[in-house]
Amino acid sequence: MLAINFTPFPELTTNRLILRQMKREDETDFFALRSNPEIMRFIPRPIAQSVADAFQLIQSINDGIRKNESITWGITLNNKPTVIGTIGYVRMAKEHHRAEVGYLLSADFRGQGIMQEALSAVVDYGFQQMKLHSIEGIVVPQNTASASVLKKAGFQKEAHFKENQFYKGRFHDSIHYSLLTPLV
């Protein structure tokens, strides 16, 4: 079983990005992301109704980090503190050395390779620091942009499950992609 410790919080940097822990001051930025129906269209989570909702979500994220159960980074540009997206390991199966990556990004920053850059840093952290054996990404079939991000990062399609998720009163398919740790 994996022994994971996110203390101190692992801030990650890339050429253009800083992936950092979210804090109360990010609640307005996070609300803008989590309340936007276009951004949340393929994410089976309730839309934030208020800034207070966004702050509660940040608290919940940070609680998961404190308990070493999950980790989510706020994505910011190197020269700006504004959170433009999030990425993290939203579910971990420590006994299987496996985690599920999840992410979202402001529509204003799509098509610029930002999520690809963030995913690369998070995958490297997962394999090198967390000692994961595999990383999973789950998308609905309609979310071709997210599937493309995963494929460009080397993820392979593992399965297409028919109507295996129930959300908002109906069943949805899901496609599972995974990436195995590189051989050392």
UniProtKB/TrEMBL annotation:
<dbReference type="InterPro" id="IPR016181">
    <property type="entry name" value="Acyl_CoA_acyltransferase"/>
</dbReference>
<dbReference type="InterPro" id="IPR051531">
    <property type="entry name" value="N-acetyltransferase"/>
</dbReference>
<keyword id="KW-0808">Transferase</keyword>
<dbReference type="InterPro" id="IPR000182">
    <property type="entry name" value="GNAT_dom"/>
</dbReference>
<dbReference type="Pfam" id="PF13302">
    <property type="entry name" value="Acetyltransf_3"/>
</dbReference>
<protein>
    <submittedName>
        <fullName>GNAT family N-acetyltransferase</fullName>
    </submittedName>
</protein>
<dbReference type="GO" id="GO:0016747">
    <property type="term" value="F:acyltransferase activity, transferring groups other than amino-acyl groups"/>
</dbReference>
<feature type="domain" description="N-acetyltransferase">
    <location>
        <begin position="17"/>
        <end position="184"/>
    </location>
</feature>
